[in-house]
């Protein structure tokens, strides 16, 4: 089983997305900031992460800043950005992410995660 790293500063979003993904059979790790997500990845967890689902607005660094830092060391981890700000999509140009606007219904979230992990395995 692969782990999903969820990054969001909203407890409600983390709880809802975590429940959806756990219900679909994924193990879920949670971070509330880009910095805490980076620390989790540095702790050796990176090798077991199958995909990352992040919000754009985070305390400290934005989702785009987090993905830029991530891509310097790991280009292969699929990243899904879910945000209510369609105007920020261009900040992710060239970073190889799947960009979706909120709301992201549970079935779509599960499909996005499964598809991104399948593409990585191919």
Question: What's the SSE pattern?
Answer: EHEHEHEEH
Main beta sheet: 5 strands, parallel
At the fourth level of CATH, the homologous superfamily is Response regulator
What is the count of β-strands?
Answer: 5
Number of helices: 4
Domain count: the total is 1
Shape: globular
Beta-strand percent range? 15-25%
Return the average pLDDT rounded to an integer: 91
Rg (C-alpha, Å): 13 Å
Report the top-level CATH class. Alpha Beta
- Given as residue ranges, the uncertain stretches (5+ residues, pLDDT < 50) are none
Helical proportion? 40-55%
Structural class: alpha/beta
Write a brief structural summary.
This protein is of the alpha/beta class. It is built from four helices and five strands; from the N terminus they run E-H-E-H-E-H-E-E-H.
Report on this model:
The chain has a single domain, classed as Rossmann fold (3-Layer(aba) Sandwich). It has helices at residues 11-23, 34-42, 63-73, 106-121; strands at residues 3-7, 27-31, 49-54, 79-83, 97-101. β1, α1 (11-23) and β2 form a beta-alpha-beta unit. The chain has 4 helices and 5 strands, in the order βαβαβαββα. Strands 2-1-3-4-5 form a 5-stranded parallel sheet, sandwiched between helices. By secondary structure, the protein is of the alpha/beta class.
